[in-house]
Amino acid sequence: MKIAVFGIGYVGLSNAVLLAQNNTVVAVDLSQERVDQINARVSPLEEAELSEWLATRELDLSATTDATEACADAEFVIVATPTDYDPKTDFFDTSSVESVIALALGQSDTASIVVKSTVPVGFVARMRALHNTDRIFFCPEFLREGQALHDNLHPSRIVVGADSPAAHDFARLMAEAAEATDIPMLFTGPAEAESIKLFANTYLALRVAFFNELDSYALSQDIDAYQIIEGIGLDPRIGTHYNNPSFGYGGYCLPKDTKQMLANFSDVPQNLMRAVVQANKTRKEYIAAHVIGMQPQTVGIHRLVMKSGSDNFRQSSVQGVIRDIRDAGIRVLIYEPALEKKKFMACEVVRDLDDFKAQCDVIVANRASEDLSDVAEKVFTRDIFGKS
């Protein structure tokens, strides 16, 4: 079976690699550089398992910039293009997804369009009405950054926003390619599937916000957040997972998905959704104020990336901290090997780690690192469990 995958980001590439074990997969991207890397079996993304699979596994996978070629004879067209949140419209920018849908439907009278990009509730229904077809359905992804392929190989569940033969066929393809067995499958309406994705990420953001606010309280009262969280987590209703404080949630999904969830509630009475979004802003402001209160001459930012094993720092939480410290008139240096620029957010980027450590009075690290063990007295982090 031939499958076309539009978008070679974490979602698209991990799905393409997964399905290329048993199918002919053609990945499509606007970037010729990314296309060439895939065809040379080199991952354009920093993720160890993706890199290993591309380099060593037998995969029926190719990449192209030619969308028409990719769609020819494809039975499924997976759309995994970006849907960034647009603050002007208060909604996701779904233009790239809409373009792929129109192109794919124009190329084939039979192919099913599987939307993997996160979209607002009601998007698929609108697309189906616009194109007068039921060949479009939403299949949300639940991937962690830096572990996208692993999470496709070991999915917590497979959700498809349709109950058609094509929807069941696609779910079966995903399950057959996975290493896990007995994967829960849920076939829902399109709006329900869209809601599952947004509510799941908003709940994760809520959990991050809760433990961050707990940590802010502990920091302000000079008490041990570790002991408090350990005691709370022993309640089986709460658990000991996803409880490590940070500078706030960031990355590809949670910031934009929580804002989109809030926008979807525009005509529905609510308090919690708005509080989750506001809590993230408050946390970053509190962290920055605490660092400013230490009265350093030079603050170092150790890494912009959100998680180990990832090269993504888009919307990373530490950027809000950087902005407030910089605006307070304090010199800020950034150590980020994944960044090629000499400046970022009007701050100097330092590539030599020893030079970086020597210049800084305080080193701000969202996550603890062995690289900083020799200057532990300079490090400010709220990574109390030492987990990514």
From TrEMBL:
<dbReference type="GO" id="GO:0003979">
    <property type="term" value="F:UDP-glucose 6-dehydrogenase activity"/>
</dbReference>
<keyword id="KW-0520">NAD</keyword>
<feature type="binding site">
    <location>
        <position position="145"/>
    </location>
    <ligand>
        <name>NAD(+)</name>
    </ligand>
</feature>
<keyword id="KW-0560">Oxidoreductase</keyword>
<feature type="binding site">
    <location>
        <position position="250"/>
    </location>
    <ligand>
        <name>substrate</name>
    </ligand>
</feature>
<feature type="binding site">
    <location>
        <position position="197"/>
    </location>
    <ligand>
        <name>substrate</name>
    </ligand>
</feature>
<feature type="binding site">
    <location>
        <position position="307"/>
    </location>
    <ligand>
        <name>substrate</name>
    </ligand>
</feature>
<dbReference type="InterPro" id="IPR036220">
    <property type="entry name" value="UDP-Glc/GDP-Man_DH_C_sf"/>
</dbReference>
<feature type="binding site">
    <location>
        <position position="29"/>
    </location>
    <ligand>
        <name>NAD(+)</name>
    </ligand>
</feature>
<dbReference type="Pfam" id="PF03721">
    <property type="entry name" value="UDPG_MGDP_dh_N"/>
</dbReference>
<dbReference type="InterPro" id="IPR028357">
    <property type="entry name" value="UDPglc_DH_bac"/>
</dbReference>
<feature type="binding site">
    <location>
        <position position="314"/>
    </location>
    <ligand>
        <name>NAD(+)</name>
    </ligand>
</feature>
<comment type="pathway">
    <text>Nucleotide-sugar biosynthesis; UDP-alpha-D-glucuronate biosynthesis; UDP-alpha-D-glucuronate from UDP-alpha-D-glucose: step 1/1.</text>
</comment>
<dbReference type="Pfam" id="PF00984">
    <property type="entry name" value="UDPG_MGDP_dh"/>
</dbReference>
<dbReference type="InterPro" id="IPR008927">
    <property type="entry name" value="6-PGluconate_DH-like_C_sf"/>
</dbReference>
<feature type="binding site">
    <location>
        <position position="306"/>
    </location>
    <ligand>
        <name>substrate</name>
    </ligand>
</feature>
<dbReference type="InterPro" id="IPR017476">
    <property type="entry name" value="UDP-Glc/GDP-Man"/>
</dbReference>
<dbReference type="Pfam" id="PF03720">
    <property type="entry name" value="UDPG_MGDP_dh_C"/>
</dbReference>
<protein>
    <recommendedName>
        <fullName>UDP-glucose 6-dehydrogenase</fullName>
        <ecNumber>1.1.1.22</ecNumber>
    </recommendedName>
</protein>
<dbReference type="InterPro" id="IPR036291">
    <property type="entry name" value="NAD(P)-bd_dom_sf"/>
</dbReference>
<dbReference type="InterPro" id="IPR014027">
    <property type="entry name" value="UDP-Glc/GDP-Man_DH_C"/>
</dbReference>
<feature type="binding site">
    <location>
        <position position="118"/>
    </location>
    <ligand>
        <name>NAD(+)</name>
    </ligand>
</feature>
<feature type="binding site">
    <location>
        <position position="256"/>
    </location>
    <ligand>
        <name>NAD(+)</name>
    </ligand>
</feature>
<feature type="domain" description="UDP-glucose/GDP-mannose dehydrogenase C-terminal">
    <location>
        <begin position="300"/>
        <end position="387"/>
    </location>
</feature>
<feature type="binding site">
    <location>
        <position position="83"/>
    </location>
    <ligand>
        <name>NAD(+)</name>
    </ligand>
</feature>
<dbReference type="InterPro" id="IPR014026">
    <property type="entry name" value="UDP-Glc/GDP-Man_DH_dimer"/>
</dbReference>
<feature type="binding site">
    <location>
        <begin position="242"/>
        <end position="246"/>
    </location>
    <ligand>
        <name>substrate</name>
    </ligand>
</feature>
<dbReference type="InterPro" id="IPR001732">
    <property type="entry name" value="UDP-Glc/GDP-Man_DH_N"/>
</dbReference>
<dbReference type="GO" id="GO:0051287">
    <property type="term" value="F:NAD binding"/>
</dbReference>
<dbReference type="GO" id="GO:0006065">
    <property type="term" value="P:UDP-glucuronate biosynthetic process"/>
</dbReference>
<dbReference type="InterPro" id="IPR013328">
    <property type="entry name" value="6PGD_dom2"/>
</dbReference>
<feature type="binding site">
    <location>
        <begin position="142"/>
        <end position="145"/>
    </location>
    <ligand>
        <name>substrate</name>
    </ligand>
</feature>
<dbReference type="GO" id="GO:0000271">
    <property type="term" value="P:polysaccharide biosynthetic process"/>
</dbReference>
<feature type="active site" description="Nucleophile">
    <location>
        <position position="253"/>
    </location>
</feature>
<feature type="binding site">
    <location>
        <position position="34"/>
    </location>
    <ligand>
        <name>NAD(+)</name>
    </ligand>
</feature>
<comment type="similarity">
    <text>Belongs to the UDP-glucose/GDP-mannose dehydrogenase family.</text>
</comment>
